[in-house]
Amino acid sequence: MSDILAIIPVYSGASSTPKLVKPLHGASSLVRTIEAVLEDLPDANVVLTADDDAVKAQAAPFADRITIHDRTAESYSDALVDVLNAHPAKQVVVVEPTHPFRPRGLIRRTAENLAAREHLDSVVCVREFEASLWRLDPDRTIQALDPGGDRRSSTYFQEVVGLALATRPELIREGRRLGDAVGFEVVDQFWALVDIRDDMSLAMAEMVADRFTELRNSIA
Length: 220
Hints:
Strand content: 15-25%
Number of strands: 10
Shape: globular
Helix content: 25-40%
Order of helices and strands: EHHEHEHEHEEEEEHEHH
Radius of gyration: 18 Å
Structural class: alpha/beta
Distance between the termini: 36 Å
Mean pLDDT: 92
């Protein structure tokens, strides 16, 4: 049994799936994701679970280093459980191929963060930002998220689960997302937050792809 199982899930019914195999100045978002996982987790058991022939074909050149699993479950949670049943592991890392760009070592750091902290259920990538946020309640009234009137902006963290999520196998089997005790891996590169779920973000990804090597190498 491998200590780490890295899962790259793809579902043909998702609107973003055709974009996964579209070249972005050479490599597609799918290929860039596979390469990032293999670079960061060279000893992990890497499984692509997919029901799309074009996706499987593009992953075929990596077949000596990854397992291409035939996805039969439509449900996201069920698809992850199917992979885990076939490939038991002590830790699971889920990486979404809709994110083509990741800082080098991000996936590895996310996995190591969880491995080093037994009390955590999971570790998720997040972006940090400051804002004064308000919410719309069911009765259509608007309330400040923080009590009080005039105040400084608060610090918040937004999940960017698709970049990398390290979690425990039992959470996957229970169909839970993150669990109760969650650790953060903070991502502050704007280009790492780009995904390809819609045409606008795909256009942004194409611009980033043209300078990706330069941007990634500029990280101190």
